[in-house]
């Protein structure tokens, strides 16, 4: 089916829904590299006007990647909840945008709507929204998950403590962990990106994390971000809390990551069988990022933002504790500068939350991107207002193993202070008991004799 819109005396025609979505998106370097974006600003506006008139029901009839060729398309179509969709089924994309911005779309109605909307519907409506629209709607969403603590409640901001080390040295990692804990970070997860995917090295790190967590009775979860097959291999000989995997929005992208839905289901069920959660059983941790499908030459002609949102259908299937869009990590080939990174992060957070996911954002950039820490400060503040579930806490904001710039423990303190946010309730109480934070959320002075420091 083709779509068209006329501006003055020029009629712009778009051959199919996939093309229309690509042309309607804000300009970004990845779509330009793939040859998918609008050629001119006027063509982009024409595509947005045409997209606004598309009925939401069309997305159930026309898929962007054929059903027969892609298991994620099959997941999206087969899992669609017709009853939940009934609330908005009579809308066009433009009318859906207006409803989302209205007072009728409150927290409860958005939670009920989630199973009834597809990733492509959500990607489409985001392309018609300004940044403030994305923030306004996302703030109304509340997605709460639990494992050893409660993440995602309104008024709270959690932090993944990311103590990476370029040689996986346990003492160096432990020092970064203690540093982060003393700044109030770590309630989302204490998560290490290992320098290698060695099963034995992963076991060593997991045992160290579990021993530290248990010794100080920290109400949080740990994770070594190894490949899911490594986690399955070691699961019954190591204390695995969360099961991690990077995912993408096409079957071919996930194949490049060495995974498929069946393997993820196996890992999910194996993780559940361990019964390590104390207040809940959300145990999957997924990471995504715009551009992953293009970098794997697996986008199938779909723009990078729509591919990204399709990845959220994969995540949604497994009721994750955490979903993290690593927004600027892949590089300027996909998101060229601070403006593109900020826009992409707000889109990802909005789309994930609307689909019912516990979205966090790694507010980051690589050193060859046209971005700096001021851009990250802006994005951090915007996402804090939007109600992001969690961010990263990296020593000095500089990851010495992955070689990119993220957010620091101090950045998290800033966001919590200026926006009146707290850590997860259980972790907040632990910080107070440890004499690290006051009941008002102020960081307390810690002397050299603090018992956490004795660990290192």
Automatic annotation (TrEMBL):
The main location class comes to other
| Biological processes, Gene Ontology terms | amino acid metabolic process; ethanolamine catabolic process
Q: Reaction catalysed by this chain?
A: ethanolamine = acetaldehyde + NH4(+)
Q: Where does substrate bind?
A: 160-162, 193, 287, 362
Record EC number:
4.3.1.7
Give the metabolic or biological pathway: Amine and polyamine degradation; ethanolamine degradation
One GO MF annotation is: ethanolamine ammonia-lyase activity
GO CC annotation terms, alphabetical: cytosol; ethanolamine ammonia-lyase complex; ethanolamine degradation polyhedral organelle
The keyword Cell membrane belongs to this UniProt entry's keyword annotation: no
According to its UniProt record, where is this protein located? Bacterial microcompartment
Q: How does it assemble?
A: The basic unit is a heterodimer which dimerizes to form tetramers. The heterotetramers trimerize; 6 large subunits form a core ring with 6 small subunits projecting outwards.
| HAMAP family, per database record | EutB
Under the heading NCBIfam families, the entry gives: PRK15067.1
Q: What is this protein called?
A: Ethanolamine ammonia-lyase large subunit
List the source organism.
Chitinophaga sancti
Q: What's the name of its gene?
A: eutB
């Amino acid at each position: 089916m083709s779509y068209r819109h006329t501006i003055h005396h020029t009629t712009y025609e778009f051959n199919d829904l996939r093309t229309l979505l690509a042309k309607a998106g804000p300009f970004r370097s990845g779509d330009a590299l793939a040859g998918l974006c609008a050629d001119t600003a006027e063509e982009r506006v024409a595509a947005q006007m045409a997209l606004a008139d598309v009925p939401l029901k069309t997305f159930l009839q026309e898929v962007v990647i054929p059903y027969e060729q892609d298991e994620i398309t099959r997941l999206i179509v087969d899992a669609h909840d017709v009853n939940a969709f009934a609330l908005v089924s009579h809308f066009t994309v433009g009318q859906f945008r207006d409803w989302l911005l209205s007072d009728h779309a409150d927290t409860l109605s958005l939670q009920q709507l989630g199973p009834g909307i597809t990733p492509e519907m959500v990607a489409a409506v985001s392309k018609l929204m300004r940044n403030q629209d994305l923030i306004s709607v996302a703030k109304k969403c509340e997605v709460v998950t639990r494992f050893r603590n409660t993440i995602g409640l309104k008024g709270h901001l959690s932090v993944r403590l990311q103590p990476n080390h370029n040689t996986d040295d346990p003492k160096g990692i432990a020092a970064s962990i203690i540093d982060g804990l003393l700044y109030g970070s770590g309630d989302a997860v204490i998560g290490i990106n290992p320098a290698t995917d060695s099963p034995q090295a992963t076991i060593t790190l997991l045992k160290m994390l579990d021993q530290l967590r248990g010794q100080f009775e920290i109400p949080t979860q740990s994770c070594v971000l190894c490949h899911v097959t490594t986690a399955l291999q070691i699961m019954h000989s190591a204390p695995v809390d969360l099961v991690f995997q990077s995912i993408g929005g096409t079957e071919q992208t996930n194949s490049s990551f060495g995974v498929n839905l069946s393997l993820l289901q196996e890992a999910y069920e194996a993780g559940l069988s361990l019964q390590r959660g104390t207040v809940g059983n959300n145990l999957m941790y997924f990471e995504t990022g715009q551009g992953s499908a293009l970098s794997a030459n697996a986008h199938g002609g779909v723009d990078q933002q729509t591919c990204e949102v399709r990845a959220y259908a994969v995540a949604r299937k497994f009721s994750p504790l955490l979903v993290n869009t690593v927004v600027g990590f892949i590089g300027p080939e996909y998101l060229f500068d601070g403006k593109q990174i900020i826009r992409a992060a707000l889109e990802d957070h909005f789309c994930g939350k609307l689909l019912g996911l516990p979205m966090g954002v790694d507010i980051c950039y690589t050193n060859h991107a046209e971005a700096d820490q001021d851009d990250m400060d802006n994005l951090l503040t915007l996402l804090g207002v939007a109600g992001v579930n969690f961010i990263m806490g990296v020593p000095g904001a500089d990851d010495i193993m992955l070689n990119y710039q993220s957010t620091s423990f101090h950045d998290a303190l800033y966001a919590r202070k200026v926006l009146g946010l707290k850590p997860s309730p259980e972790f907040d109480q632990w910080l107070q008991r440890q004499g690290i934070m006051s009941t008002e959320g102020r960081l307390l002075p810690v002397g050299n004799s603090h018992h956490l420091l004795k660990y290192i």
